[in-house]
TrEMBL record:
Classification via InterPro entries: Aminotrans_V_dom, PyrdxlP-dep_Trfase, PyrdxlP-dep_Trfase_major, PyrdxlP-dep_Trfase_small
Alphabetical UniProt keywords: Lyase
UniProt keyword Kinase, yes or no: no
SUPFAM superfamilies membership: PLP-dependent transferases (SSF53383)
Pfam families associated with the record: Aminotran_5 (PF00266)
Full protein name: Selenocysteine lyase
Ranges where the Aminotransferase class V domain occurs: 73-407
A GO MF label: lyase activity
Keyword Lyase included in the entry's annotation: yes
Length: 415
């Protein structure tokens, strides 16, 4: 089934301003459904729930005095569960990925003692690794392939042992787009240790379906702003038996529940946007029916095919420009098969002899919105910032092959 890009574009009112947006990793466009839902949720969050009896097998009679805002938060947990293939009682909500990971690191201190080991990667941003590098647990580092940006799974055979209690990996690199073989790493972790595998799916979630059971992940973290959602994030656990093993960040919460990791109340208004962004992805193909979880899987199947087509065209087009160097794809270090690696529709590139800031300005003057590549351990190791920086591109469901052709024409005037 062909992905209907025209229909997807119609869900974003903001696209009528004339710019071509290629910066979803930095400031994703917000679907109209999400902005309307957030506005409505903020207005209604303080109202009391209707006490009229509910009907249907999924109906729940609200408690006396319960506000609509609490229902918005509860609905957000259900939506996140549908997104990753879990249940709502395993979902922890928070204002950002950084806050949730700091809370998790604090809660895991009883497990991350001096005699234990934590495996982190130099692929992740410092905001992801720093909360776990300050615990009492010894830290060992998994290294990326500097030629392709890939995180090889074989190295975890040497890094993981019986003392390992936590392994943290990304599902995909946010700036190079390389996809991690999470299932292969999970198999190694389970074979060699009792460690928990934490997967950062924030870059992966806007493009592909997440099945944490198929991954073999113990914890998945997802940030919603790269999807076009509100400034919120979620941690999802493998099962509820993990909660009693964690110290409470919120001592007033049930020690066996997800709420023990939530410090303070979540914004009911923004929670309304979480439900809306998940629903948005479930209707990217208007021809689909069934439950939301079913629609999400089918919708992401079409979106993944669209993303792969865009990625192939983007790489092939930029490789045709002799002075454009695609990080992880171009050059002898990457090898001839680098372009065939599994990637989400994101990449970073530089133009030989032209500072990235100059390239960025040229693209903007031609209506193309990209970003200067931010500081990242992998990009630093690749020497990106020694040569004037690079440009990062990330595509969205509404992008077309024509957008890539426009980018190629502008770069050709520089390269």
């Amino acid at each position: 089934m062909v992905f209907d890009v025209a229909y997807a574009r119609g869900l974003y009112v903001s696209l009528s301003d004339g710019w071509t947006y290629l910066n979803a990793h930095d400031r994703a466009q917000i679907p109209e459904r999400v902005s309307s839902a957030v506005s409505s949720a903020f207005r209604s969050s303080g109202l009391l729930m209707d006490q009229a009896p509910l009907t249907g097998t999924h109906g729940r009679q609200p408690e006396v005095g319960e506000t609509v805002g609490l229902q918005h938060v509860a609905s957000a947990r259900v939506a996140v569960a549908d997104l990753v293939g879990a249940t709502p009682d395993r979902v922890v909500l928070g204002p950002s990925k950084e806050v949730l990971l700091r809370n998790l690191a604090e809660a895991m201190r009883p497990r991350l003692r001096r005699s234990t080991q934590t495996v982190l990667t130099r692929v992740d941003d410092v905001l992801v690794t720093s909360p776990f590098s300050t615990t009492d647990s010894a830290v060992v580092w998994a290294e990326p392939d500097l030629g392709t940006g890939e995180l090889p799974s074989w190295q975890f055979n040497k890094l993981v042992d019986g003392s390992t209690r936590l392994v943290v990996i990304p599902a995909a690199h946010p700036y190079l787009g390389t996809v991690t073989d999470v299932a292969a790493i999970s198999e190694i972790v389970q074979e060699k240790s009792r460690a928990w595998l934490l997967v950062d799916a924030s870059a992966y979630a806007p493009y592909r379906s997440i099945d944490m059971d198929a991954w073999g992940a113990d914890i998945v973290v997802v940030e919603f702003s790269p999807m076009g959602g509100p400034a919120m994030a979620a941690l999802v656990f493998r099962d509820t038996t993990m909660f009693p093993l964690l110290a409470a960040v919120n001592p007033l919460a049930d020690p066996a529940s997800a709420l023990k990791l939530e410090l303070g109340r979540n914004s009911a208004g923004l929670a309304g946007g979480v439900t809306a962004i998940v629903e948005h992805y479930s209707i990217l193909d208007e021809r689909l029916g069934g439950t939301r979880a079913t629609r999400l899987r089918r919708s992401f199947a079409g979106l993944e095919r669209h993303g792969r087509e865009l990625t192939r065209h983007l790489i092939n087009s930029l490789q045709g420009l002799p002075k454009v160097h695609i990080l992880g794809v171009s050059g002898e270090a990457a090898g001839s098969g680098a372009a065939k690696l599994d990637r989400i529709p994101r990449l970073s590139f530089l133009v030989t002899g032209v500072p990235a800031a100059t390239v960025h300005r040229r693209l903007l003057t031609n209506g193309l919105v990209t970003t200067l590549s931010p500081c990242n351990p992998l990009l630093e190791a690749m020497g990106v910032f020694d040569g004037g920086g690079a440009i990062t591109i990330s595509l969205s469901p509404f992008n077309t092959l024509g957008d890539i052709d426009q980018l190629t024409r502008v770069l050709a005037s520089l390269a």
